[in-house]
Amino acid sequence: MLTKIYTILFFLGLFFFPFNSYEGIAFLGEFKTESGALFLFAGFLVLVANVFISKKIVIPYKNIIFQLVILFLVWCLAATILNASSVNSNYFKSTSGINRFIRQYFALLISALIFFIFYINVLSKMKLKEILYKIRKVFLCSLIVASVYGFLEILISIFGYVFLYPLLKGFDYFPFLEVNLHPEGRISTISYEPPFLAIYLITISGWMFSYILTSKKKTRFLPALAILLLTYFSGSRTGLIVIFFQVFIFSIFLYKDIRFKKYVTNFVLGFAIVFSVLIVFKGEKVIQSVSEKMDSLDFKKNLTKSVSNQSRFGMQYAAVQVFLENPITGVGFGQQAYHNRTHYPTWATRNNYEFKLFYKNKKEKAFPPGYNLYTRLLAETGLIGISLFLMLLYFSLNEIRILFKNAKDEEKTILIIVLISLLGLYINWLQIDTFRIYGVWLCLAILIRMRNKSLNLRDE
Predict the structure, then answer these.
(1) Does 347 fall in a domain?
(2) Gyration radius of the chain over CA positions
(3) pLDDT digit string (tens) for 40-93?
(4) What's this model's pTM, rounded to 2 decimal places?
(5) DSSP symbols for 263-294
(6) SS3 content of the chain, % helix, strand, coil (to 5)
(7) 27-46 as b/e, with b when 16 or more CB fall inside 10 Å?
(8) Does a structural domain hold residue 422?
(9) Which of 43, 77, 158, 323 could form a disulfide with 9 if both were Cys (CB 3.0 to 4.6 A apart)?
(10) Cβ of 444: how many Cβ atoms within 10 Å?
């Protein structure tokens, strides 16, 4: 009975993870607006109760991926202890270094240990066919809600059909959702901002693309088309780059299979038809929108003219400087912001209101983001920490290669999904510095489950 309950909570957590546009629960810290996390927390507690009763829990202690996760967690703690003196003296935005470490480390443990073990135990009770079809169906349901909301948002914000706004406001009655139109002609649908919408779309893209591989229905292309349209209108530069990279990787798999070569051609043709229809009915707006998107991807131009990019690259530059001063152990987990502020480059802070109002403002409690997980780890955990983390990424991708050799049809589909998801999310970590990326830990848990046949999992 308890197993069934925490499995249901697991699927609810996956469904609701992109729903974070509500006020939230303050004491949950980083997870305060993460509605999916509420169900995952509840599911983990039910799992713990089940462990007390059954005396069994799946701990894949022999799996290299799990071992690397644990080693990384241990080093994050060790690096902080080795920097105890500076951590104890750090103080900024009314927050001590110790307080900051506890908050950040606890947030890391939630994603990389608590939720991770929860995923592993749920998936260990499921057949691979169930993993493929049930998880994909849950993501499809959330995408349907996001698409209906998103297309209404597109019609209102971009094409000016404001009379549809009362219809959009009806989504206020949906759990964990507050309707809020994003300025500047961008959409965020069920998420609080376009960048998080992009993370959600990157996470589920592989699952939605897989319908082309497994379904024979004429509607099998619609989920992939929805992903592309929502990504385009979100205005997320990273989203555009990563999603189209994922499409390219998926197209390679299609083209290599004689059964699906025609799908590549049909997809390009279908996209061209849809784009042509938009040109006919809203030509000026579409052309202007495309021009803006292409302009936003001009790296050289936007490095100096975009305040957002100035902040991003300025933060990353500062983190690298902190690393160069502390190359082996870093400055301690969660301590980047205390040291970065003495290394902000002039080209990033000049005429940049974000530094004045937010990042350097001691009265603003929110800490400045690092904008890049890899440079953050360089600064906070040094060469040892970044090496362990990159090893985790390498072994996860290598595991896909190994498993693919003897995989059957459904197993191959899952591995393609996991590869597309992980590649996208690993690239996305180049512009965010949080471990609160559900798709990564879910995919790693799936890989551990797929290795289950040759791995002796210990029940404790």
Answers:
(1) no
(2) 22
(3) 999 999 999 999 999 999 999 999 999 999 999 999 999 999 999 999 999 998
(4) 0.91
(5) HHHHHHHHHHHHHHHHHHHHHHHHHHHHHHHH
(6) 75, 0, 25
(7) eeebbebbbbbbbbbbbbeb
(8) yes
(9) 43
(10) 26
